[in-house]
Amino acid sequence: MSSKRIRSHSVQEILDNEYAEIRVDTRIKTDVKIRNNRPDIFILDKKKNKITLIEVGITSQDSLQIVETEKLRKYDLLANELGLIYKCSVEIIPYVMTWDGIVTKYHKSHLKRLEIPMNVEAYIQSIVLKKTVETISFDRRRGLESGLNAEESWERAS
Questions:
Q1: CA nearest neighbour of 24 among 32, 9, 33
Q2: I need a surface site. Which of 22, 27, 88, 158 has the fewest CB within 10 A?
Q3: Is the pLDDT assigned to residue 152 strictly greater than 60?
């Protein structure tokens, strides 16, 4: 079983048993050539005969709505093709938030469909915030090392 390193986490690419097949960031083979064929997470629920494609995005507040819509539409062709191949229903669910944890009005319904409990959602938001703070402080340190004051460093980063 091969695995991929995503930043500091190692993730198994494919998990497969009698109940489900889960693929993380792997190309999905289809009969027809489809450009967008690598969803973030692919779940085939063998008992419910259902496929869920999950697209994750962390973005700015200005782009939040656009990114969520793009993530929802990006895999339309793949979803249609998979429905024909597996003869099952296919659902695309975007999981998008800003770098400071803000979500759209549709996020709650996406969470419900993913069956993510609120404590897990809170944990995910805390990780996003933690990574944001780490990135900002790293950029600040780098800016100070290069002789820039905090304001110049912030302007350069924006």
A1: 9
A2: 158
A3: no
